[in-house]
Input
Amino acid sequence: KRMSAVVLEWYGCAAAPQSPFASTGRVEKAMLEDISRCVDGYILPAIGRRKVGSVGANLICAVIELVPQPDRHIVEGILKNVFDYAVECNYVASNPCRDLNLRGSIEVYEKPKKPPLKVRIGKKLGSAFIKQLFSDDDKK
Output
């Protein structure tokens, strides 16, 4: 399968309200316009005609080097997600982006969940005091 077909297939799934694929379900919907611009401007002209299995880490690095700095993180994120999608669909055996240290992302940022109040207070006041405060012995 050609890279252009895989990228467009991936984009269609990413733009859909619900996706059965993990790689497309994580995509930040607010970035779809920027993603489309980067796909059309950088990714498809550079590697769109190649077979998805023939695109390796060296070619990915070469493509990213051609991208202007402001868009580089978007292109890195797209390539990581597209190859994750290609792995999910069994178009390729592994994601060549995994070997690269790409920091770009187009995924939804989720804040880390706060620990329960009991734990947060315990860190500040000391666990012995918290155990005494929340112990069930007082309620008898």
